[in-house]
Specification:
single chain; mainly alpha; globular
Length: 201
């Protein structure tokens, strides 16, 4: 893994905390995180493009109830890591979307697994309120490490796989993925239009 990819993994893991665990300043939104990642890779326009596309693609999925939407940070950072390593952006984007869905499934599983532990921690806080800061720090650190490990492993596996596969990909496959990539914002806008229509009425 290159130094730039390593820095991207760290920054992405910090920004991932903004989704639910800390800050909540909306810097975890792909449209904001994308340019930040692009600035680190040296290609802000690629970051802006991926950020806008990921934002539009996941704009109609809300984290309501037990629904954990695909992770926008993962969907934004992985394409830029791959792009920085020479993989076409239109291939990297769909790898990022797949990884974002896998991350949301992993997050759902881990949240369910942590439920009994949260009951124990609640009793600990009731018994000794001064441990609350240590518990919060531990939870933030755990979330950061989970995101960092997932993004790092996904980046390494997908970069190795894509760099190995790229010479074997046909011209038609390149065209198909490029067309699918350029259709993403239109799919996102099509999903948003009904929402605007309902609000207008």
């Amino acid at each position: 893994m290159t130094l730039t990819a390593f820095i991207l993994c760290i920054v992405a893991s910090v920004l991932e905390l903004d989704i639910t665990y800390a800050f909540q300043l909306l810097i975890s939104r792909p449209i904001i995180a994308g340019p930040i990642f692009g600035l680190i890779t040296g290609d802000v326009m690629a970051g802006v493009q991926v950020g806008i596309f990921a934002e539009l693609l996941f704009s109609d999925v809300s984290p309501l109830g037990g629904i954990i939407p695909p992770n926008g940070i993962v969907a934004t950072v992985l394409p830029l890591i791959l792009y920085h390593q020479g993989v076409a952006l239109y291939f990297g984007f769909f790898v990022g979307v797949l990884a974002a869905i896998l991350y949301s499934l992993l997050d759902t599983y881990l949240r369910k697994a942590r439920s009994p532990w949260l009951v124990f921690l609640e009793k600990e806080v009731d018994r000794k309120p001064t441990v609350i800061n240590r518990i919060i720090f531990g939870a933030l650190l755990q979330s950061f490490l989970m995101a960092f490990v997932f993004i790092s492993v996904a980046a390494w596996i997908s970069s190795q796989l894509m760099l190995w596969l790229t010479p074997y990909l046909t011209y038609k496959l390149h065209v198909a993925f490029l067309l699918a990539y350029t259709a993403v914002p239109w799919i996102g806008l099509a999903a948003l239009l009904p929402a605007f229509r309902l609000k207008a009425r």
